[in-house]
Specification:
308 residues, 6-stranded mixed sheet, globular, binds 3-methylcatechol, binds fe (iii) ion
Length: 308
């Protein structure tokens, strides 16, 4: 079918009305964006000759995606969250705000308000003592000259041995594997935790349903998420992705980057008071200087348990 009506004067006037151009209320920026969305959607319907059934399948999909709380997951899986980083990297390069540890995506599973510890802490609640490998994670937060930043906040979170995150997985205790660690006078943070497993999308969920149609898996390599912040420095959202994982460079969310690969060093005979086989991971972070106050803060993306 080659009938195209979306760009006629009549249809354009209709979309302008629908986008609120005929009134003086609402938000002018949203009106302009919505007009564009209506136009792009109409062109898509025409160009692909979408059937009614296809269109309403999509509407139902959006409902199911929201009901399962998977919007953030789909955005990561379609590479859109990665694209936002690519764009910010390009902007940074343009203005010469470069150097330090690369950023990578936050993902949809952060929970605000994790317990705060000074210098060092244990992150796991011990429920996986029989199945998990103990992981000693440590490093320093440094400036671009390699000078330690004392009093930086290392806000970190990771999955358990099943690849699940506390809060979203109600079988785990509150804030299991989530902590905020304040660096000591040498900029050092230390955590005793467990080696995480990679995350996999719910095979029954709407995100995996979409990925199936694209012929793609929904797996991430084992990884640890970080927000690093300190007064006067630029907020950093990043991750360590673990070397040796089958999905290290085949991440459905495209978060692995050069400079963000961590190498577990296994201690076969135990270490640091642990008698069984355990792992050590050392990772330092380098922060850029903040250009202004806003630069010191993370995005205002709505997150779980966001309280004042
Ligand atoms: C994760 O743990 C994650 O980090 C991302 C980006 C998407 C889904 C699950
Ligand atoms: Fe994750």
């Amino acid at each position: 079918m080659t009938v195209k009506i979306s760009q006629t004067a009549e249809t354009q006037a209709f979309f302008k009305e629908a986008a609120g151009f005929a009134n003086n209320d609402g938000n002018p920026r949203i009106k302009k964006i919505m007009f564009r969305v209506l136009n792009d959607l109409a062109k898509l319907i025409e160009d692909f000759d979408l059937t009614e059934d296809e269109f309403w399948t999509f509407a139902d999909y959006v409902n199911r995606l929201g009901k399962r709380g998977e919007a953030g997951l789909l955005i990561a899986g379609l590479g859109i969250e990665r694209f936002l980083d690519m764009r910010q990297d390009a902007i940074d390069a343009e203005i010469g705000q470069t150097g330090g540890t690369p950023r990578t995506i936050e993902g949809p599973l952060y929970v605000a308000g994790a317990p705060v510890a000074q210098g060092s802490t244990r992150m796991d609640d011990g429920t996986e003592d029989n199945v998990a490998t103990v992981m000693f994670l440590e490093g320093q937060v440094l400036d671009l000259d390699g000078k330690p930043i004392a009093g930086a906040t290392v806000d970190l979170w990771h999955a358990n041995t099943k690849g699940n995150y506390s809060f979203f997985d109600k079988s785990q205790s509150e804030y299991n594997l989530r902590r905020r660690i304040i660096t000591d006078s040498e900029g050092r943070y230390q955590a005793r935790s467990i080696v995480p497993s990679g995350y996999g999308c719910d095979p029954q969920g709407p995100t995996q349903e979409c990925l199936d149609l694209l012929g793609r898996h929904g797996q991430r390599p084992a990884h640890i998420h970080f927000f690093i912040s300190a007064p006067g420095y630029r907020h950093l959202t990043t991750q360590i992705n673990l070397a040796g994982d089958k999905y290290l460079w085949d991440d459905f969310a495209y978060a692995t980057r050069d400079g963000l690969v961590g190498e577990l060093v296994f201690r076969e005979g135990g270490a640091r008071g642990v008698s069984e086989r355990c792992a050590e991971l050392r990772f330092d972070f380098q922060l850029q200087k903040a250009a202004d106050n806003k630069d010191e803060q993370r995005s205002h993306r709505p997150r779980a348990l966001q309280v004042l």
